[in-house]
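Reopening this one. Same input as before:
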Amino acid sequence: MCWIFAYKWNKEATPYLVDGLKHLEYRWYDSAGLCELDSRGNYYLEKAVGKVAELENKVNSASKKLANFNIWIAHTRWATHGRVMLKNTHPHKSTQDRFFVVHNGIIENYIDLKKDLEKKYKFYSDTDTEVISKLIEERWDGDLRSTLNKIVGLLRWTYAIAVLDTKDPDILVWAKFGSPLLIGISEDGFFLSSDSNALNNVAHSLVSLEDNDMVVVRGINYTVYNEWKEVKREIEPIIRKNAILSLDGYTHYMEKEIFETSKMIGEIFNNRIDYKKNRIISTTLDKLSKYDIKRIEIIASWTSYNAGMISSFWFEELTGIPTSVYGSSEYKYKRKFIDNKTLYIFISQSWETADSLECLKIIKKQWGLTFWVVNVVGSSIARLADMWIYTYCGPEIWVAATKTFMGQLAVLFMMMIRIGEKWELQRLQSIEILNGLKSLESYLEKVIEQKDYIRKLARKYSKYKDFFYLGRNLLYPVAKEWSLKLKEITYRHSESYSAGELKHGPLSLVDKNFPCILLNPKWRLYEKNISTLQEIKARNGVVLGIVSEWDENKDLYDDVIEIPLSVEELYPFTVSLALQLFAYYMAEKLERDIDKPRNLAKSVTVE
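Same output, byte for byte:
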């Protein structure tokens, strides 16, 4: 599971290289590598374990001799097959050093293919990708496109591939199935990227490739083929050119993106809600509301899954529509009961979530009504759905998710209101909720104002090795999400549980060294949670409460973080922001690599 970047035309390639890889590094960062060619077929292969800076140092030392190299393929890796070692770093090559390959995805049948190839070829790596380079050599028919077209038919599951031929340095061939791939077009040449962010500063237009597409770049022209036939793909302008590497004075991207949240949430709602008329403004949601929806199924992977869990409470409580939530990796293999009265909502923070994409294809084949909530404008995964809506959060650079999670909640909340207006959501209740949204940005700002206090608390709690996040009903999936975030960036052990179920077993874990974080603002289950608090305190447990301001029982807790009092449907936003800050400041105290936590990747494009 990796990310690829490539370039072809008549300008020196090296100046584009490191900048492009840095724009991809926020997704993968185990290792990086590249191969460059000049017009005579001379090649320069370089690899480095670790972050892109390691590769940059090597390339800079060789930059003088690379002045005439105008074609290259490059790669950042997140290890799936083989440990993080130089031998497993891309690009991979054929036996005679003729063909060089970079690959994103997983070849599930690589073991069987490798066994046959080992009768003739010696393998140097533990990767599935090296099989592709050896297959090109084995099946070579004199034409790179033709050879690759035959080979991809042997590969099971996902791939995005770029191939160089040192004996024909005027050609660059790309192929795609399942994994994301884009063509970037500039005055200076053609770029290939798995992510539009790498194209923002180098290209003026992009082309989104579809499954089974193969692209041949020769000279100053490119041609797209699909199953041997030449096809045309739409050229789209790149509108937004974000300087995504700028920290703007913050220490980490996580910190920056947490502090951007209140403004972002305000923009999402202000751009789509007419507060004077108390109505949602969205042609997509207007279209959706016309369907006779009797049931909702939400499919997503874990942070997005938790956003879906929260929204399922909104949908059921406020619209009366039965709503189920499934992890996409499990949904793919469960028996499905697809009908035309069910809305299938997919949620993704990234370009391509492989499990969710496979589920979407299955439902589409059976004519299910599909809707996608996604952040990346122009995402091919969105265009496959019947309808989609963008969160417009902007780039999220750090690996785990905070502001995209909040953006998903905002969009799902508006979906609930618009659909609910047709069903059980009463007009007066809808107006009350919309009026509450007017104040949400200021509520979030109030949480941010407590940053110094929350930092002090996080440092105090950083001495503990184990944590319990507890919530009920609407706030139970909030507890699940921020238990996950604490694991991701602090590497502390953390559990999440329904507060009402604590007595059914997990209470045995509670002691003075296992603090509980109890989500208990003022709402209809407030008193139930006070009983849970007393159960914990009776066993010498330590409790940090997330409570509403002016809570008369806050002295029952060891410590509290106060959030503004609001309608209970909005608590997932304010509680989440408080817990974001808590996790961030604890990771800061523990000196973790916050933006790039170990073993994790931003976007999961393999199953």
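So the earlier flakiness isn't reproducible anymore. For the record, The mean pLDDT is 89.
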